[in-house]
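stage 2 :: seqdesign
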């Protein structure tokens, strides 16, 4: 009976010609899940100062918590498709969301740095599972003609978390305390885990289209693809630059122009709103010219950080720089994803796992580098270091190879 059920499920997926409201709702739950996962990872950014004070540690040590999550996710994401076997993907992502809630609860009750590290390890495992499977699950939830659109939505959950999640967490943290902010996303994760279990259909392991396809699509062969390799180099430099500076955006805004908590929340909200604009604009542009789009975003990130470093005491210049930063970085997740899938057509599942692993490793590297430079030399040096890395990303993209147009 199980084999017959699986065959029927696959046949329905391949033969369906239209997408129902319930199926779009299931896609929406996947999008919200990626949003909550990535927001939970980056939440320390918005509550860094009070979080450090509450745990009795320095802001640099609090920022290192992002490095922990990023490293664990970087290891988890690429191996997820290879170790799940015949497990129902619906059950896997639902359990991962509950695990995410556990990680957030551990952060809520952390008395110091040690338990904080444990909580971020748990969160990193959950994030690696959900993020790596989201864009693979999404096209299986809709009719074939809506597959590409569903993937765009799934990726937009990550982008929206990057640009909206932190401001939302900052607002909650400023109003009720940083621990309540983490508790809020713990509750959200449990609710979404239940929604995934109820709304998604059974999702057995997808069949390979050709014998040996999985092995041919391995990470090693992908790294030998010039367009994939150059795109990943750009991502490493640009994401490292972003998180080196953005992880410490709150102390930068407090020390330089002297903004208070309410003003910082408003500025980060403006960053988030322009980031959403950047996400959808970049998605439309990158569908045709992914390399040119990502390089434009790299230039925007570099210019915005240079503005912050050059006019660090000017409130107007700081706000302008942050708004431009949101606009530019908001499109990176979808732009980079499209660069990868256009460079490895037919191997989207494996290149997505590789991309997520590299992306999250760069998050870890950026948070670690930012904490080290900030503790040793201060905010201004940190901003100039990040700007140099963003320019390095731009140079790597100009000199490297992009996807071949088809």
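stage 2 :: out
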């Amino acid at each position: 009976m199980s084999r017959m059920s699986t065959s029927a499920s696959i046949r329905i997926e391949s033969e369906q010609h239209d997408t129902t409201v319930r199926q779009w709702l299931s896609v929406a739950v996947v999008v919200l899940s990626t949003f909550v996962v990535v927001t939970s990872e980056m939440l320390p950014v918005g509550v860094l100062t009070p979080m450090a004070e509450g745990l009795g540690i320095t802001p640099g040590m609090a920022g290192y918590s992002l490095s922990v999550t990023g490293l664990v996710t970087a290891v988890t994401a690429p191996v997820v498709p290879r170790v799940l076997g015949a497990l129902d993907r619906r059950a896997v992502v639902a359990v991962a969301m509950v695990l995410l809630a556990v990680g957030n609860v551990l952060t809520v009750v952390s008395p110091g740095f040690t338990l904080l590290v444990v909580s971020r390890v748990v969160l990193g495992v959950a994030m690696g599972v959900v993020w790596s499977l989201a864009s693979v699950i999404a096209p299986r939830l809709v009719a074939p003609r809506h597959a590409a659109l569903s993937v765009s939505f799934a990726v937009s959950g990550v982008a929206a978390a990057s640009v909206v999640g932190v401001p939302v967490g900052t607002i909650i943290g400023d109003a009720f305390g940083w621990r309540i902010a983490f508790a809020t996303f713990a509750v959200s994760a449990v609710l979404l885990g239940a929604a995934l279990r109820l709304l998604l259909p059974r999702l057995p392991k997808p069949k390979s289209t050709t014998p040996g396809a999985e092995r041919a699509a391995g990470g090693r062969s992908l790294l030998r693809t010039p367009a994939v390799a150059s795109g990943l180099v750009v991502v490493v430099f640009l994401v490292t630059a972003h998180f080196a500076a953005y992880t410490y955006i709150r102390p930068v805004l407090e020390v330089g122009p002297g903004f208070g908590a309410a003003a910082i929340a408003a500025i980060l909200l403006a960053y988030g709103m322009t980031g959403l604009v950047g996400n959808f604009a970049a998605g439309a542009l990158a569908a045709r010219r992914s390399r040119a789009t990502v390089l434009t975003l790299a230039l925007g990130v570099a210019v915005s950080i240079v503005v912050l470093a050059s006019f660090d005491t000017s409130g107007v210049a700081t706000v302008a720089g942050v708004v431009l930063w949101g606009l530019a970085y908001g499109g990176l997740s979808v732009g980079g994803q499209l660069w990868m899938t256009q460079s490895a057509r037919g191997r989207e599942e494996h290149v997505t796992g590789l991309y997520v692993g590299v992306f999250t490793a760069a998050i870890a590297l950026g948070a670690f580098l930012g904490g080290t430079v900030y503790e040793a030399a201060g905010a201004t040096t940190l901003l100039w270091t990040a700007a140099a890395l963003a320019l390095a990303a731009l140079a790597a993209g100009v000199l490297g190879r992009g996807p071949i147009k088809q």
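stage 3 :: structure notes
- The domain at 20-206+219-399 is CATH 1.20.1250.20 (Growth Hormone; Chain: A;).
- The chain has 17 helices and no strands.
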